[in-house]
Amino acid sequence: MVCVLAEPLERRWHAGPCSGAGLCAFLGLVIIVVAPLLVCIRTGGFLLEEATYREDPLVFFQNEIVVTALDSAGLPIMTWTSIPEINAMLGDALRFPVVTARERDANFDGRPEDLEIDISLPLLGTEHVASVNLMLGFSYELQDAADMTMQSLAYISEA
């Protein structure tokens, strides 16, 4: 037999918004769309391409120091470090300076603002210092948004 026309059977059921089906549709919308959107907005990561963060770090002098005094020709007159193993390798260039270091917290916030280092070099009567090189070890800490601790080195050269 030849089929001339076929129409599918179509039935529709409608439920109000206060029915069980309406409640399931609403909960599905909240779980699939609204909840992830609120999580993204609340965590601050929604379409975040660039952010700036500022914090005053905790910087402490670790009493790690290397002092080298040079003459006018650029040759070392004396060298000293706070690391005994390196001092043992220096030989005749090793001399012990008097070093005092003091950190000052001017506004009493627990973060030192100034570091004052006094170095007295023991020189012979014929020696003349043309430049001094310092390497100082510091501890650098961030604690608010980023929890980070690192060791840093400051190099100072004064002629």
UniProtKB/TrEMBL annotation:
**Membrane topology qualifier:** Multi-pass membrane protein
- PANTHER family (alphabetical): CHST5 PROTEIN, TRANSMEMBRANE PROTEIN 231
Q: What does this protein do?
A: Transmembrane component of the tectonic-like complex, a complex localized at the transition zone of primary cilia and acting as a barrier that prevents diffusion of transmembrane proteins between the cilia and plasma membranes. Required for ciliogenesis and sonic hedgehog/SHH signaling.
Which InterPro entries does the UniProt record give? TMEM231
Q: This chain belongs to which protein, by name?
A: Transmembrane protein 231
Q: Where are the transmembrane segments?
A: 20-41
Location (main, coarse): membrane
Q: Which family does the record assign?
A: Belongs to the TMEM231 family.
Q: Name one Pfam family in it.
A: TM231
Q: Which UniProt keywords apply?
A: Cell membrane, Cell projection, Cilium, Glycoprotein, Membrane, Transmembrane, Transmembrane helix
**Which biological processes are named by the entry's GO terms?**
cilium assembly; regulation of protein localization
Which compartments does it reside in? Cell projection, Cilium membrane
Q: Name one GO cellular component term.
A: ciliary transition zone
